[in-house]
Write a structure and sequence with these properties.
single chain; 295 residues; 7-stranded parallel β-sheet
C-alpha cells in the first residue's frame, strides 16, 4: 500500500470527482472533496468513508472561497500532497453562435478556475518541495471538432497551462500532469448537457447536426465504462512513485486518437475525421450534415 496522501479534489459531487474521492478513500488516503453544494451532495459521497473524505464548499469561480477552502485544508491536515483539478462544465454549439457570456463562463470554470486553485495550493507545495498537480483535461484537449469548439478551446488552454506549469514547478520537485479521458459513461452526458442558447431554443443554424452529435455521444457513452475506470487511474497517479508523464490519455478511444493524430498530417487528419459516420463524436454530426444539410 502507498503512503497515505492528502488529496484535494475539485468538482467532487459526481462523475470523475466523486468516483476518485471514494477510490482514494478506499485505498486509505485522506480526501478533501470540494463541491459547490455539500449540503446536497456530500452525504452520499462520504457514506462508508467518514473520517477519510472531508467535504468542503468550493466554487472555482470564487477566489475568496478557494482561499478559504485551501486554508482550512492546510490547517486541518497540515499539507496537500496532490491536487486533482477536476471541476468543469461542457458546452455544445457552433462557434459562430457562442455568446460572449457563454464563452466567458466555460473559460472561467475550466481554465481560470483551475488556475485559481493552483495559485492557492502551489505555495504550500513549493514550501515542502513536494506535490502533484493533476489537471483533468479531455480527448477534446487533443483535437477540435464540430459543435464543441468552446469546450475544446477550454481544454486546449488547460493543456497549454499544464505544460507551462510543469516546467515552472520542476525546480521544487512538483509534478504536473494532464489526464485526457475519452468518452465515459458519466452523469454529465446523460443529464442536462450545457448547450448554447440557440441550440436550447431550437433556432440554431446547426440544430440538426448538433442535436445528432449530443445523441450520438450519449449512445457511445452507453457502450463505455463509467467514471470508476477513470478514478482508478487518477488514484494510481496519486500513488505512483516514478516520475509522471506530461499527458496520460485514458480509455482506448483517447489512446487511439492521440496515436493517430500524431501520425497524420493536418490534411490526412481532416480527411479521416470528416469521413466518419459512426454514432458518436464526431461521426453523428457529419452523418446528419450529409443526409439533411444544415440551416
Amino acid at each position: 500500500m502507498a503512503d497515505p496522501q492528502v488529496v484535494l479534489i475539485t468538482g467532487a459531487s459526481q462523475g470523475f470527482g466523486a468516483a476518485t474521492a471514494r477510490e482514494l478513500a478506499e485505498r486509505g488516503h485522506t480526501v478533501i472533496a470540494t463541491m459547490r453544494n455539500p449540503d446536497r451532495d456530500a452525504p452520499a459521497l462520504i457514506e462508508g468513508y467518514t473520517g477519510r473524505i472531508y467535504p468542503q464548499r468550493l466554487d472555482v469561480t470564487d477566489a475568496s472561497m478557494i482561499s478559504a477552502a485551501v486554508t482550512a485544508a492546510l490547517d486541518q491536515h497540515g499539507r496537500i500532497d496532490a491536487l486533482i483539478n477536476n471541476a468543469g462544465v461542457s458546452l455544445f454549439g457552433a462557434v459562430e453562435e457562442i455568446t460572449d457570456e457563454e464563452l466567458h463562463h466555460i473559460l472561467d470554470v475550466n481554465v481560470v478556475g483551475a488556475m485559481r486553485v493552483i495559485g492557492a495550493v502551489a505555495p504550500s507545495m513549493r514550501a515542502r518541495c513536494s506535490g502533484k498537480i493533476i489537471n483533468v483535461s479531455s480527448m477534446a484537449g487533443l483535437i477540435g471538432g464540430p459543435a464543441v469548439g468552446g469546450y475544446c478551446a477550454s481544454k486546449f488552454a488547460l493543456e497549454a497551462i499544464t505544460e507551462a506549469l510543469r516546467y515552472e514547478l520542476q525546480p521544487w520537485s512538483i509534478q504536473v500532469v494532464a489526464v485526457e479521458p475519452g468518452v465515459v459513461n458519466t452523469e454529465m452526458l446523460h443529464g442536462n448537457l450545457s448547450a448554447i442558447a440557440s441550440v436550447r431554443e431550437g433556432r440554431s443554424r446547426y440544430q440538426g447536426p448538433t442535436e445528432a452529435l449530443i445523441k450520438g455521444l450519449r449512445a457511445a457513452a452507453n457502450r463505455r465504462q463509467g467514471p470508476r475506470s477513470v478514478a482508478s487511474q487518477l488514484a494510481d497517479l496519486v500513488e505512483i512513485a516514478e516520475p509522471l508523464p506530461l499527458r496520460v490519455p485514458i480509455g482506448d478511444d483517447a489512446i487511439r486518437i492521440s496515436q493517430q493524430r500524431g501520425l497524420m498530417t493536418d490534411d490526412e487528419w481532416e480527411g479521416f475525421l470528416t469521413s466518419l459516420r459512426d454514432e458518436g463524436f464526431p461521426g453523428s454530426y457529419f452523418r446528419v450534415v450529409e443526409e439533411q444539410g444544415v440551416g
